[in-house]
Amino acid sequence: MKLAKIELLNTGNELLLGGVRDLHLQWFGKHLFPLGLRIARQATVPDGSIIRTALLETFSRADVLIITGGLGPTTDDITRELVAEILSLPLKLHQETLERIQERCRARGIPFQPRMERQAMAPEGAVVLPNDQGTAPGLYIPPVEGVSWASPHLFLLPGPPRELQPMALAHVLPRLAELFSGTEKNECRIYRVVGMGESKLEAAIGLSISQRGDLEVGYCARPNEVDFRLIGKSEILDEVEPSILAAVGDKLLSTNDESLDEVVVSLLRKAKASVATAESCTGGTLANRLTDVPCASEVFLEGFVTYSNESKSALLGVPSELIAHRGAVSEEVVCAMAEGALERSGATYALATTGIAGPGGGSPEKPVGTVWLALAERGQATHSWMEKFMTDRLTFKQRATQAALDQLRKRVLASLTHD
Amino acid sequence: MKLAKIELLNTGNELLLGGVRDLHLQWFGKHLFPLGLRIARQATVPDGSIIRTALLETFSRADVLIITGGLGPTTDDITRELVAEILSLPLKLHQETLERIQERCRARGIPFQPRMERQAMAPEGAVVLPNDQGTAPGLYIPPVEGVSWASPHLFLLPGPPRELQPMALAHVLPRLAELFSGTEKNECRIYRVVGMGESKLEAAIGLSISQRGDLEVGYCARPNEVDFRLIGKSEILDEVEPSILAAVGDKLLSTNDESLDEVVVSLLRKAKASVATAESCTGGTLANRLTDVPCASEVFLEGFVTYSNESKSALLGVPSELIAHRGAVSEEVVCAMAEGALERSGATYALATTGIAGPGGGSPEKPVGTVWLALAERGQATHSWMEKFMTDRLTFKQRATQAALDQLRKRVLASLTHD
């Protein structure tokens, strides 16, 4: 079976004006691959009638066209109407959707506005894809024969990712899997590596593999984390895997797309251990990342965000003389923070951070980007270390918490292996 | 002068496989607007010869085409060669670039590879745009007359944003500004509104404005926040602004692209006030959002992430009988949390959250998504309220903290107005 040509058409002036960053291409790219499918081409066009031109262009070359945006209640939302017109399909009121929208308004105490009714209109023959996160449903329109063309399988989906993604998972991906079930599936393995740069990773494992010619190789670097991607036949992937695992050792975070946060929570649950956090410069990012993971409450007891010096003393028992003498950003203070959090929380482990996130607050001895980190464990010496992340404030918070969580990951992993 | 048609063509398999998220469209959108220019259309295509098709399509309709990616040293990087072939321009070695690449290799201790020389080739008549962040230079190719077409102004730029952005700032934007200096510049105003849905907003202000015909109207909705965008002549924007401000009242968050976090920190600084946080279900998101803002340390003293019941009692003094009797997710407990944080921190205000983020932990009386919020202020009665956000865990955390921060914003705003 030849590879299905799937195209993605994003609509919306805000995407072209830079107000919003597109998330759909990446999302579909990731989620189609396991089905043996890929996006062949993607385009972004403004709101309005130019959507018609872009639509008609794809008809001759695409098997599937996924259109995002323009299904909302406001006057610039015209995708539904344009598609119905091009395909000469009358729009009919979908009673169930209307009731769903009215019910949603009632539940949220929002008055039902007459213009919301447009969102309950569906072209004849379309399958309505319910929206559990918003008002506008999606639509699936099977191929229609026109005078001089045939339309591809059309999916009209809402623009906001929090509405589109659950809808696509429930209704678009399963349908595509069924439509193209005969497609040959290559396997994609992602080795997520932490604490090892892209070029070092390539030097260690990538070069000999990319020269083979029977595997597609790719890299994706994020703050302090690199995905090494291999696409090919399973037996070939099995053949090269041992050399990859040997080269990355305990720097391998996951092979199943799990984030560091998820890996840490899952290891702590396995070890029946718990963690508390004491944060200065990372300002709650550590606690926030841990509590992004469902069931975090089983392993995360409490977190202290001690931004001011006074709060470091009052909440964590860091002696104020120590802060005055050594400075808030110091090895002694970060250890006292971690040990204070450990003692007060009763947790198995405590992580602490103190540093200078910037843009202000740096000095020649302690420039912006400096951070001291500590990991305290019941009955063990506290481990502390310094890092420098010369970057913007938000990336700094991300990288500092990445370093802290990775240290905890390795510690819990070792405890599980030694048992 | 009619609006220049600028198109953006992104090349690269990694964009279509989801390994990398495109940053170029948003970047160019933001940077072209102040020049009176816009991206009319954007497309992503894989590496390889399909780039030729995509290129030729644009020739008939674009004045400018910006192509990103495919300038590197590897075999799948063929943009430069394809463009030269289509335009029948011979490729010539650019000696200065070759020396630059060789020097770069020396400085970094990387052996110079013969295939790197390809990156120093430039089509005849092209302007070489130096790359200060990597090896491959960019290229500007002025319009060329072909047999049955004329090429647009072509810019070939490297794919990595850290190479492309400085190059575009130095060499692409100034050239476009000069080429299209006669373009009329419209103004873009964004009214960011919080606590008012898209349809309600349009009913309140948008309809009469979109019917005028001399303003371009757009909406962009995010969790609990909507941007209402107007583009047009400054005098017309001035004319309609008073009616917009009157309609949205204190639901107006900002008109300068500031986020709620930034607005709250800036209002607190203006009021010389401070805030502490006590979070259960939001698990540090409140503290994290406040500390994302530079200078947060002037107004944010400390935060408590009291995930377990024990920590609510130990850290915030919430009586354990109250938790046992009313439940951790209750009005009484959220008020006690906020008041405990206020007292212990000495801050002017304290925000507290307790709820059920899910996916587990719900009950018929308190379903997943239920959250109690409180705002305590020195010398004032504590304000508490309940919300229900039936959504995924991460959006729940985002919306609950949005509601809490917006309440604080309105309170501080009122205190400043009354003074």
Secondary structure topology:
Two copies of one chain form a homodimer.
Chain A: E1 6-11, H1 13-17, H2 24-32, E2 39-45, H3 50-59, E3 64-68, H4 79-86, E4 91-93, H5 95-108, E5 121-123, E6 127-129, E7 138-141, E8 153-157, H6 161-179, E9 187-194, H7 198-210, E10 216-222, E11 225-232, H8 234-248, E12 252-254, H9 260-271, E13 275-279, H10 285-290, E14 300-306, H11 309-316, H12 320-326, H13 331-345, E15 349-355, E16 370-377, E17 383-388, H14 393-418
Parallel strand pairs in A: 1-2, 1-3, 3-8, 13-14, 13-15
Antiparallel strand pairs in A: 4-5, 6-7, 7-8, 9-11, 9-12, 10-11, 15-16, 16-17
Helix pairs in contact in A: 3-4, 7-8, 9-14
Structural notes for this entry:
The structure is a homodimer of 419-residue chains. Chain A has helices spanning 13-17, 24-32, 50-59, 79-86, 95-108, 161-179, 198-210, 234-248, 260-271, 285-290, 309-316, 320-326, 331-345, 393-418, and strands spanning 6-11, 39-45, 64-68, 91-93, 121-123, 127-129, 138-141, 153-157, 187-194, 216-222, 225-232, 252-254, 275-279, 300-306, 349-355, 370-377, 383-388. The model of chain A has no long low-confidence stretch (mean pLDDT 91). Chain A has 14 helices and 17 strands. In chain A, 47% of the residues are buried. In chain A, helix 3 (50-59) packs across helix 4, helix 7 (198-210) packs antiparallel against helix 8 and helix 9 packs parallel to helix 14. In chain A, the strands form 4 sheets. In chain A, strands 2-1-3-8-7-6 form a 6-stranded mixed β-sheet, with helices on both faces. Chain A has 419 residues and is α/β, with parallel strands linked by helices. Helices cover 40% and strands 23% of the residues of chain A. Chain A folds into 3 domains: 6-179, MoaB/Mog-like domain (Molybdenum Cofactor Biosythetic Enzyme, Chain A), CATH 3.40.980; 187-254, Alpha-Beta Plaits (2-Layer Sandwich); 260-418, Alpha-Beta Complex (Maf protein). Chains A and B meet through helix 1, helix 2, strand 2, strand 10 and helix 10 of A and helix 1, helix 2, strand 2, helix 7 and strand 10 of B. Strand 14 of chain A pairs antiparallel with strand 14 of chain B, so a sheet runs across the interface.
